Amino acid sequence: MIPLNPSRALDEMKALRALTSDENGNQRVVFTPVWKRAVDFFTAKVDELGLKWRADVAGNLWATLEGERPQTVVIGGHLDSVPNGGWLDGCWNVVAGLEVMRAYKLSGPKPPVTLKVVSWCDEEGARFGRSLFGSSAFSGYLDVEAVKVLKDKDGVTVEQAAREYGIDVNLAPGATAERNDVAAYLELHIEQGPVLEGLGLPLGAVLGTVGVERNVITFHGQAAHSGSTPMNVRKDALLAAGKMAQEIYAIAGRHKGVCTIGSVVTKPGIVTSVVEECTLTLDQRHLDAKELAAMWTEAQGAARKFAAEGSVTVTFSDLWKIYPIPFHPELTEFCDQAIVETVGKSHKLPSGPLHDAAEVCRAGIPTQMLFVQSLRGISHNKIEDTKDEHLLASVTALAKLTEKTIAWVVNKLG
Amino acid sequence: MIPLNPSRALDEMKALRALTSDENGNQRVVFTPVWKRAVDFFTAKVDELGLKWRADVAGNLWATLEGERPQTVVIGGHLDSVPNGGWLDGCWNVVAGLEVMRAYKLSGPKPPVTLKVVSWCDEEGARFGRSLFGSSAFSGYLDVEAVKVLKDKDGVTVEQAAREYGIDVNLAPGATAERNDVAAYLELHIEQGPVLEGLGLPLGAVLGTVGVERNVITFHGQAAHSGSTPMNVRKDALLAAGKMAQEIYAIAGRHKGVCTIGSVVTKPGIVTSVVEECTLTLDQRHLDAKELAAMWTEAQGAARKFAAEGSVTVTFSDLWKIYPIPFHPELTEFCDQAIVETVGKSHKLPSGPLHDAAEVCRAGIPTQMLFVQSLRGISHNKIEDTKDEHLLASVTALAKLTEKTIAWVVNKLG
C-alpha cells in the first residue's frame, strides 16, 4: 500500500491559495509574478522530494519519477488561473497529482512504469484569449503563428510575455516530442458544474469533453406600429425567437445534450414597434458527434418552421465549433471503479468545459478525467469551492485510478 | 346640394406637398420655415375665400365661416409633420376640411350653425418629444410648466422656438376659451395602419382612441455555464420571456386588443451563459378600459406562472398609461352612414395612435374621426401614401358627416 496522505495535499493547496490570492480571488494569471509564485511553490515541492523537474519548449512543467520502464503515465493540471479566479481550478489537479507521485516515491521501490506530473502552460487563455496553449503544443494542434501575436489588454503579445519567463513561443510546437513514451494521461479536476452536487455525489468519472456547435440565428420580420397593426397581420421576429427559447429544451431533452440561447437582440427594439429583426446565439453541446449534428439540424428545422408560422424569414451563421472528444473506455471504467472503492458510489458524466485532457486525448493518448464536486456549480469566481472531505476523497480516488492505469499499461506491455 | 369639389382639395394637397417636401419626405416640422410655408399656404386659401382666420394663444389656427347661430361644428387637423414624414399625415385633414368649408361658403346662404376649420399646433411632438401641444391647451390638459422647458436636439426650448413665431407658450392654457360654443368636432385622418387595406375598404368610422398600458417585465434567473449546467437545473430568464412572447397573442386574441413586446434585453447576454436577467417591454392597447385592465392583469398572471414554471422570479414596473377615449356613439353612426353613402361599405375600428381628436373628446365635446385607407399601413415615412380615389372619397364622406352633424346640432338646439 502506498503511503498516500491526502491531508498533506490539502494543506499544500491551502498554502498555495494564501500565496496567490487577494480579496478578489485567485490571481495566478499566466506569465505574471503571482503565477510564477505558484510555479516556484510547485518546483520547490518537487525538489524536496529529490525528483527532477524541467520546463519543455512550450513552458509546460514536467516532474518525473522514473520507473522500471520508460513508458509513462502522466497526471496533469494547470497552475494558471483566470483573473479573480477560484483557488482550486486546475491547481488542485497538480497538487493532488504531486501527492500521488510523492506516495509512489516514499513507498520506496521504483514504480513499474515512469510517472510524471505536468503543469500545462496557459490552460485558461484568460489573458490572451486562446486557451490550452501548452497542451495544444503537446498535441500538435497549436497554430503558433496565429497565437504568438495575440495581445493582452495592455497590448503585450504572447511572444513578449512568454519571453520574460524564458520561453520562446516560436519553439513551442516542439513540445510534441514530450509525447514519446506517454502511455496514458490522467487528470483530476473540479467539476465546475452542478451535476455531482445535485446527485449528492463527491466524485464522477468523465466520459469525455463534449462537442460544441455555436451558431447565430436571425429572424427577419417587419417593423410595424404597436397601436395600429392587428395581431394577425404582424410579422413579429420575436414570436419565432420566443418559440425557439422553448424548443431548445425539447431538442436537448430528446438527445440528452445541452442547448443554450445566451443572447437575444431585438431591432428596432423600441416599445412602440413590432420587432423587425431578432438575433439570438445558440450554443449546443453533446458528447456524441452524430447527436450534436442532429441537434443543430433540428434547431434549424424548428427555426424554419417557426419562421414560416409567423410569416418571417430566418438566416443562420456559424460562430464556432469543436468535435466531441470521448475519453478511453477502459480508463473510464477504472475511474468508475476507483470512485466506487473510495466513496461507494460513482456517476459517469461528460465535461461541458474543455480541458487540457481533450488536447492530450486527441493526440491519440489513452486519457481519463476524474471530477470532484463543485459547490453551487460555480467556478472562475472567488467563491469557487469544494468541501474538504471531497477534496481528500479525490486524492485517494486519483491514486487508485493511477494504480489501475499503471497496471493496465504494464499488462499491455506484456 | 353643396358645390363640393374633392379634386380641388387633392390638387391643393399635391401643391402643398411640392412646397414642403424634399427627397427624404415631408419636412413640416413645427416652428420651422417649412412649417411656416404650410401655414401661409393655408391662410392664403382662407383669405381667397374671403373668410377670417386667426391664431389662438396656443398657436392653433382657426378659420371661421359664421353661421346663423354661434354654436359651432369644428373640423380639425394639423399642418406639422415629423421630420422626413409623409405628405398626408394631419395635413390632409386640414385641406379636406377647408374644401368642406369652401363648399358651404360657395353654396351661398349662411349655414345654420358656425363652421370652423382648425389646424392644431404641434400635434406630432417630433421636435420636443411632447405630442398634442395645441389640442391639449384647448382641452385643458396641457402642463405648460413641464412642456415649455423641453428642448429639441439643438437645445432650443419650446418657449424659445414658439416665440420666434409670435407665440408665448406661457399663455397657451388660455386656449380653453376656444371651447366656447363648440358643439361637435370632426377629424378625417389617414389610418396609419393596415386594417382598411386588409379589408379592401377605402374608409372607416373610428370608435375612439385606444387606451395604452405600457410596462416593463423583468425575469430574474441565474447565470450558469452553457456547457456544465444540465437543462433541468437551469434558472433561465429567457425561457419565461419566450413564453410571454407567445402568450401576448393569446391575451390579445381573447380580448380583441393588441399587445406588443417591442424590446428584449438579455444579461449577461453572452453565448456561453444561461440568461440571468431578461427585460422586456409590453405595450397593450384596447378601446375598453376594463378589457385593457384585464389584459394587463392576465399578462402579469402569465408572467408569474411562467416564472414559477422555470424557477425564476419576475418584477414589473410602469412605463406609461392613458385611458381609452371612445368617440360619440351618435356621431360614430353618422360617420358610418356617411361612409356607406359614399363608398357602399363601412367598417368601425379603433385608432391605435393618438390624435388631436382624443384631446377634444376628453374636453367633453362630441367628437368623431373618419379614417381613410393607408397603403401598406405605413406612415411617418416618405413612402406614406393613399390612393387618389380614396382621398377623393374621403372628402365626400367628410362633407356628408359634416352635414349630418350640423343637422344633429341644430336638432339638439331645438
Helix content of chain A: 25-40%
CATH superfamily of the largest domain in chain A: Zn peptidases
How are helices and strands ordered from N to C of chain A? HEEHEEEHEHHHEHEEHEEHEEHEHEH
How much β-strand is present in the residues of chain A? 15-25%
Helical region count of chain A? 12
Distance between the termini of chain A: 23 Å
Low-confidence stretches of chain A: none
Gyration radius of chain A, rounded: 24 Å
CATH fold-level label of the largest domain in chain A: Aminopeptidase
Q: For the report, how would you describe the main beta sheet of chain A?
A: 9 strands, mixed
Write the CATH architecture name of the largest domain in chain A: 3-Layer(aba) Sandwich
Secondary structural class of chain A: alpha/beta
Mean pLDDT of chain A: 95
Envelope shape of chain A = elongated
Oligomer: homodimer
**CATH C-level name of the largest domain in chain A:** Alpha Beta
Biggest interface, residues from each chain: A-B, 57 and 57 residues
Verbal overview:
The structure is a homodimer of 414-residue chains. With 414 residues, chain A is of the alpha/beta class. Chain A has 2 domains: 295 residues, Zn peptidases (Aminopeptidase), CATH 3.40.630; 112 residues, Alpha-Beta Plaits (2-Layer Sandwich). The first copy, chain A, contains 12 helices and 15 strands. In chain A, strands 3, 4, 5, 6, 7, 8, 13, 14 and 15 form a 9-stranded mixed sheet that branches. In chain A, strands 10-11-9-12 form a 4-stranded antiparallel sheet, with helices on one face. In chain A, strands 1-2 form a two-stranded antiparallel sheet. In chain A, a hairpin with a 2-residue loop joins strand 1 and strand 2. The model of chain A has no long low-confidence stretch (mean pLDDT 95). Chains A and B meet through helix 8, strand 10 and strand 11 of A and helix 8, strand 10 and strand 11 of B.
